[in-house]
Amino acid sequence: MNLIEKFKKTFFIENPVTGLLLGLCPTLAVTSSAENGIGMGLATTFVLVGSNLVVSILKNVIPNRVRIPAFIVVIATFVTIVDMGLQATFFELHKTLGLFIPLIVVNCIILGRAEAFASKNGVWDSFIDGFANGLGFTFALFILGSIREIFGSGAILGFKFWPEEYRTILVFVLAPGAFLTLGFMLVGMNKISKVLQGDK
Amino acid sequence: MAQYILLIIGAIFVNNVVFTKFLGICPYMGVSKKIDTAIGMTMAVTFVLTLAGAITYIVQNFVLVPMDITYLQTIVFILVIASLVQFVEIVMKKVAPALYKALGIFLPLITTNCAILGVAILSVQSKFNFLLTVIFSFASALGFGVALILFAGIREALDTRDVPKVFAGSPIAMIIAGILALAFMGFSGMVK
What we know:
The complex is a heterodimer. By secondary structure, chain A is mainly alpha-helical. Chain A has 8 helices and 2 strands; from the N terminus they run H-H-H-H-H-H-H-E-E-H.
């Protein structure tokens, strides 16, 4: 499988968030800053890679009829690991992401990849697939978080964007801003993916 | 009594699950194209969310806490919810076939509705007693329903409008949701 093609696909054309509209709850909820977006994205990537690996290893052991509950248990195990790991190492981030860490378990991207890809493919391919999709998700969260943070609080990752005396547009970091920004971002990403597909 | 009424109004309007807590956005976007399906989804969510709130309360306080295994909360809750949905589906098929037909495809979809797990965890974190948990779960589901049915109504009307090509489909839906969220911001501060 061509790695560059694969990453191009999961970043732009079939990006889990902007292309397939999966995992919208964490996308909207934690992107009030770029930093939270990256944190959430990487936590999800970890769970996605882990669950894809385990599911592809166990794919011949799990009976077909109980596969969905089995996948959910695997995912929930990794989510618990992330939950505890983050609490021990990045306590502040764990506090801001809060409820949305246990909720990674119902993120449809993860179950979707387990069902659609890892349960049918080899270990290495599943690893790459989990990694690529996780990074695609992180990428979308980072862009959305950056836009909202630049307009809403005037700084990104601690770097001040506007002069001190400028007033920022508060609505961007509030709930409606999340929906509005994502709406406009979808338009932009649709355009980009059209251009990329036209290249081929 | 006033406490319960405030909790209900708060959960429906002020802290609406969709617009302020961002829970259940996937079904919110997915099944809001028609008012009929929106009403079906609302009924299914109300039913399961209330039951799930009650059962997870019992599991949390009579199993997880006494055995000191609260770190298994995520795994146990999601399994409880998944089996509850299966169970409800089987029972409803036998007992109320008409209702089963009406809810039909929406039931299995509910397992991945993060509003269910989210509200269950939120009630545990807020340390509600049993009655408050049930009321809070029910009111949150109503809040989801209000948001979903309003949104479906607007999207139905949108079908006949001329939307710019790049905005057609999900982008314009997302922007409408943003405007609705702005409207719901008007309620903020009413109940704390």
